[in-house]
Specification:
By secondary structure, this protein is of the alpha/beta class. The chain folds into 3 domains: 84 residues, no CATH class; 196 residues, Nucleotidyltransferase, domain 5; 89 residues. Helices cover 49% and strands 11% of the residues. The chain contains 15 helices and 8 strands. The strands form 2 sheets. Strands 1, 4, 5, 6, 7 and 8 form a 6-stranded mixed sheet that branches. Strands 2-3 form a two-stranded antiparallel ribbon. A hairpin with a 5-residue loop joins strand 5 and strand 6. Helix 3 packs across helix 15. The longest helix is centred in the middle third of the chain and has 41 residues. The radius of gyration is 27 Å and the shape is globular.
Length: 425
């Protein structure tokens, strides 16, 4: 009883020990225009044949039935819209929040299932992105004639302290292999079953560490080769960066990149392809390259592969001003609107070694009309802000494939909002 309660008052107080019998229907507990209902209606219209094809539980077979993939898709899509990116938190919400309980419809899930499905559904989500946008582009609802390409740096799960030089990686890899050989010998020789199980778990952990170190060694070799090619391409006798290449032992595919706040942290470079009209995301890729230079031509190849169309115009910021990309877009008949590097002298003036494509690009960007077209790129920053506001700042998964899977959930959540706007327009 709370302090200060006066005698003689008539109050209705909580009685939590009373047993009650309630007859409720989940469908009656959610308002008609709730977003969860909209998400479920949207998921029902998706072609999830790839997910249903992976289900192995059939009629007449033994074992528990599998969870309907449509339920898992709707759960993660709605959770992403609500800014939920943790499988454990989503697991708790599935028992406490009415919207998630409505989506489940009495089905039970756990965080292991939710976490595995989130990353394993990446290829299906990528295919759904192509299918959902291809029809709109073919119908003229989405205009892919002017494409904006921009990158977003996502902080990786690894720390800067996990990066090691090539020599140190060789030492760690040798020590890990020695540990694996020793544990394998102990597992084979120990007659005790309980002890063998403990040794087996230790062996699995040692093998996983050795596998990550092997991937880190390959990543280090790739970095060294890329530096050598870049130095040779730029005709430099000495590399600009004298620091030795390093790779992460916990996330070999992550790279140290310059972030938006000016700091350097392990990250991934996510490339978004967005239509200038309507700001629809029609393409996404994840790379370990810290620079955007050289990524315009692959962006056009991705759009052409997905939809069979080539944009007439491409808008990109100054970080994409690669001469090779400018020449490739010029040969494809695509106009590039990208501001030239601001150095000494007139940016529009011809430079030594400029070809016809570079000269045309410099002259184009020197006109006020071209700058007006380029400014349309800023409208495509809205998808970035939307995903950042929903929690896409750091990924807790490792590897480009899993990172892309997580990003695709945010892409589908954003496009879901765009589809709703088109439907209401």
């Amino acid at each position: 009883m709370s302090k200060g309660r006066l005698a003689g008052l008539r109050l209705v107080t909580a009685e939590r020990g009373q047993i009650e019998f309630q007859q409720v229907c989940l469908d009656d507990l959610l308002v008609a225009d709730h977003r969860a209902r909209q998400v479920w209606s949207y998921v029902e219209g998706l072609d999830l044949s790839a997910l249903y094809g992976s289900v192995r539980s059939t009629v007449g077979a033994s074992g528990r039935p599998a969870i309907d993939p449509a339920i898992l898709v709707s759960l993660w899509l709605y959770a992403t819209l609500e800014g939920i990116g943790s499988a454990r938190l989503l697991d708790r919400l599935c028992t406490t929040d009415m919207a998630y309980r409505w989506l489940l419809g009495g089905v039970r899930v756990n965080y292991h299932t939710l976490s595995d499905f989130r990353t394993e559904a990446g290829p299906v989500l990528d295919e759904l992105l192509s299918r959902s946008m291809a029809g709109l582009i073919a119908a003229g609802v989405v205009d892919a004639g002017t494409l904006a390409v921009d990158g977003m740096r996502l902080q990786a799960a690894s720390s800067s302290a996990s990066f090691r030089s090539g020599e140190r990686l060789e030492e760690l890899h040798g020590a890990a292999q020695a540990t694996v050989r020793r544990l394998r010998a102990e597992v084979d020789e120990d007659p005790g079953a309980a002890s063998r199980r403990v040794q087996a778990r230790r062996l699995a952990a040692a093998e996983e560490r050795a596998r990550r170190l092997e991937q880190a060694r390959h990543a280090h070799e790739s970095l060294e080769a890329h530096r050598g090619e870049q130095a040779q391409r730029q005709r430099k006798k000495q590399r600009r960066d004298h620091k030795p290449a390093r790779a992460s032992t916990s996330d070999p595919q992550a790279r140290i990149m310059k972030m938006g706040d000016g700091s350097f942290r392990p990250a991934y470079n996510v490339q978004f392809k967005t239509t200038a009209e309507g700001a629809h995301i029609i393409g996404v890729s994840v790379t370990d390259r810290g620079s955007d230079r050289g990524l315009l031509a692959p962006a056009l190849d991705e759009v052409e592969q997905r939809y069979g169309v080539v944009p007439q115009r491409v808008l990109a910021d100054g970080g994409f001003d690669s001469k090779a990309d400018i020449e490739a877009l010029h040969r494809a008949g695509v106009e590039l609107f990208c501001p030239p590097h601001k150095g000494r002298g007139d940016p529009a003036a011809p430079k030594r070694g400029d070809g016809p494509a570079i000269l045309a690009w410099r002259q184009r960007m020197a006109t006020p009309q071209a700058m007006a077209v380029y400014r349309r790129r800023f409208a495509t920053e809205r998808p970035h802000a939307d995903m950042r506001n929903r929690g896409l700042r750091r990924v807790l998964v490792r590897g480009t494939e899993k990172v892309k899977a997580v990003v695709l959930w945010y892409v589908h959540a954003y496009n879901f909002i765009q589809f709703r706007r088109l439907a209401l327009a």
